[in-house]
Amino acid sequence: MDCLCLGLLCADLVCHPVPSLPEQGQLMETERMELSLGGCAANTAFDLARLGVSTGISGCVGDDVLADFIVATLNAAGVDTRGVVRSAAVATASTAVINVRDQDRRFISYAGANTAMSAAAIPEGLLESASVLYIGGFLMLDGLESDAMLQRLARAREAGTRILLDVVQVDDADAMERLQRFLPYTDVFLPNNDEAAVLTGVSDPWEQADAFRAAGARTVVITEGDRGAHLVNAQMKLRVGAYDTDYQGGTGAGDAFDAGFIAALLQGHDLPTCLRWGSALGASCVRSTSATGSVFNRDEALQFMERHAITVERC
């Protein structure tokens, strides 16, 4: 396969934007509640499949109706789900996504079966079979933070697999220390600005990128929503703006950015073009409140980028 997505699989219950958060005991109506795909790895795999990329997924779900929904949704999109493990001991992860007009979304999340995923559960040879390994949702994947996983990553890189890593924001003073073990195995690290600020203690994206590179990441991309993204590696520093779009909700936008970046990388494009693809996919995602409901397919992305210019600056 071209890309294997490893990590968070989740079912999201997403509310259409409400005017404000309800008060204690208040019932507030919304125009729509939607059950949709969620989790960094699941979202990115779905988006890659829409772009025509041969994609597989590996992660852990429970043995319940939400697991059935996740697997069926990914299968219908064309994602190879043979790497998905079912556990009878723990329920499938789920997240309530609360959208308030003119505010960033809020999450109430249950990590569930994701914490049970381990290196031993990944079939031998699966990581090495992919041109790109994308790990989505690191820091909520406790079972993968092991010496055995580091050994699997080392073997994958020796086989020529490029490793891209994304994280979720957690309340843990040791999060950067946990991450530092894995950054030397990472070809591209893709946090957003808020996650990077918590991990590094600094708010400037250039300083954040330098800190992650000093810890071992080869290329760092800091995404900033409607403020664009910054990329730093040993050869260049790039900044890209954001496409104008009809914003409905930010859920899954970072995952869509990652999918666009990976798709362009697999096509052999240079890093400025990878940033344009990531920005286009991210812009398409925020047109709906769910993580995958409005993400471009390949033809739509190409047409959008032909009609809308975006500048990538060399800094």
Task: Characterise the protein shown here.
- By secondary structure, the chain is an alpha/beta fold.
- It has one domain (3-19, 31-314): 3-Layer(aba) Sandwich (UDP-N-acetylmuramoyl-L-alanine:D-glutamate ligase).
- It has nine helices and 14 strands.
- It has a ten-stranded mixed sheet, with helices on both faces.
- Helix 2 (65-77) links the parallel strand 4 and strand 5.
- Helix 7 packs antiparallel against helix 8.
- The longest helix has 15 residues, at 271-285.
- The radius of gyration is 18 Å and the shape is globular.
Structure in a nutshell:
By secondary structure, the chain is an alpha/beta fold.
Topology:
Blueprint: E1 3-7, E2 10-15, E3 33-38, H1 40-50, E4 55-62, H2 65-77, E5 80-87, E6 94-98, E7 106-110, E8 132-138, H3 147-158, E9 162-167, H4 175-180, E10 188-189, H5 193-200, H6 205-214, E11 219-223, E12 229-232, E13 237-240, H7 253-266, H8 271-285, H9 298-307, E14 312-314
Parallel strand pairs: 1-4, 1-8, 2-6, 4-5, 8-9, 9-10, 10-11
Antiparallel strand pairs: 2-3, 6-7, 11-12, 12-13, 13-14
Helix pairs in contact: 1-2, 1-7, 5-6, 7-8
Q: Which superfamily, in CATH terms, is the homologous superfamily?
A: Ribokinase
* Total beta strand runs: 14
- Roughly how much helix do the residues carry, as a percent range? 25-40%
Largest sheet, spatial ordering of strands: 5-4-1-8-9-10-11-12-13-14
How would a textbook summarize the main sheet? 10 strands, mixed
CATH topology tier name: UDP-N-acetylmuramoyl-L-alanine:D-glutamate ligase
CATH structural class:
Alpha Beta
Task: Please provide the ordered H/E string of secondary-structure elements.
Answer: EEEHEHEEEEHEHEHHEEEHHHE
CATH architecture: 3-Layer(aba) Sandwich
Number of helices: 9
